[in-house]
Design brief:
alpha+beta, globular, Peptide Deformylase, 172 residues
């Protein structure tokens, strides 16, 4: 089932999400809904707080090449356990901040540990777009948005545009 994506500014996007203590069927269903919502948007990552659920759950799939098989990842309680000193810069966007993009510098490579849908602990090293995406989504779990990395003026400009967009959407 597709879920509604919260739009910035929304206080729920600035709250830290709670760790997942127990994998329930409800949480697995939520992860399926989130993948459907992400693919439909279309996006390459989505965090549970973006659909109004303050749980440490993210989904991502950074496969964009035509003809390549999708690689959906579901991560409960993801955490970066190691990151490279080397950085990379990507132009980031966010499904909660549509049509707004900005360059963000992050570690180029990260090792992430998480629990998968089956309750198995997993660990993997990500680089390139995958590294950027997984860090961006984990930030959501800590109440941090990509615009928080920007200079105040640019951040305020994007927030003003979003307030205006939300007002127009509310008018229908």
């Amino acid at each position: 089932m597709k879920r509604n994506i919260l739009l910035h500014p929304d206080p729920r996007l600035k709250k830290a999400a709670d760790p997942v203590a127990d994998l329930s069927d409800d949480l697995r269903a939520l992860s399926d809904d989130m993948l459907e919502t992400m693919y439909d948007a279309p996006g390459i990552g989505l965090a549970a707080p973006q659909v109004g659920v303050l749980k440490r759950l993210i989904v991502l799939d950074c496969v964009k090449e035509e003809g390549e098989l999708p690689r959906p990842l579901v991560m409960f309680n993801p955490e970066v356990v190691a990151s490279s000193d080397e950085t990379s810069v990507y132009e980031e966007g966010c499904l909660s901040i549509p049509e707004q993009y900005a360059e963000v510098t992050r570690p180029a490579e990260v090792e992430v540990r998480w629990i998968d849908r089956d309750g198995t602990e997993r660990s993997e090293t990500f680089d390139k777009l995958w590294a950027t995406c997984v860090q961006h989504e984990i930030d959501h779990l800590d109440g941090k948005l990509f615009i928080d990395y920007l200079k105040p003026l640019k951040r305020q400009m994007i927030t003003r545009k979003m307030v205006k967009m939300k007002r127009e959407l509310a008018r229908g």
